[in-house]
Each structure stands twice: as C-alpha cells, then as structure tokens.
Amino acid sequence: MEQLFSYGTLRSKEVQMRLFNKILTGKQDQLLGHKLKSLQIEEEFGMADYVVVVPSDDLSDTIHGVVFTISNTDLAKVDVFESNSYKRVRVVLKSGIEAWIYMEN
User: Fold this and answer.
1) Is 14 helix (H, G, I), strand (E, B) or coil?
2) How far is it, in rounded angstroms, from Cα 99 to Cα 69?
3) What is the pTM of this model?
4) Domain residue spans of the chain
5) H/E element holding 47?
6) Cα-Cα-Cα-Cα dihedral sign, residues 3, 100, 82, 59
7) Of 3, 2, 5, residue with least CA distance to 62
8) What is the CATH number of domain 2-104?
9) Do the Cβ atoms of 26 and 35 come closer than 8 Å?
10) What's the pLDDT tens digit per position in 13-22?
11) In 10 A of CB 34, how many CB atoms?
C-alpha cells in the first residue's frame, strides 16, 4: 500500500468514483515548506486552471490536504490521470508520514 497526499482534485468524491470506482477515506495532514502555484493545462475543450505544488523558500508556508492509503494499482491510475504537467515525488508530511504528491514538472 502507498500513501498519497492530495491537495486538490483527488479529494473530490466524484473524481474518486470515476478514477477508482470507490470513495477513499483519508486523514487531514499538511505539507510544510511548499506553496501552491496557478497552472493552466490544455484539456479537450481548451485551457483549464489548476494549482500545483512548488517548494517555497519560506518553511512556514503550508499546504493543507488529505493523505490517503491506496494500492499500487490505484497509484498507477493516478499517474495516468495526472497530466504531464505534474511529476510524482515523495515528501514527508507534518505528521511524519512519507507520502507521494504530484508537484510541478
């Protein structure tokens, strides 16, 4: 099993049902020393606005999100779901949990 930290779209129950065919349960956590940056991604019907995690010079910058425990199979589904504007990296959350997160590519 893998830990996945979500700060955006993957927290949506609708997205979870479409992607995993189930609703995930997770717990609140935080990523310190990072901030969110606006990002435009080309989709089927034009450009869409999203946010992406980037490192910050200010260690007090915090991103609030949810950490989910998912299978390797589900993690592979997320890899396909996230565009090539993101890369998957390991981070240590405020709780001490080591988790995957999708950051700016």
Assistant:
1) helix
2) 9
3) 0.85
4) 2-104
5) strand 46-55
6) positive
7) 5
8) 3.10.490.10
9) no
10) 999 999 999 9
11) 20
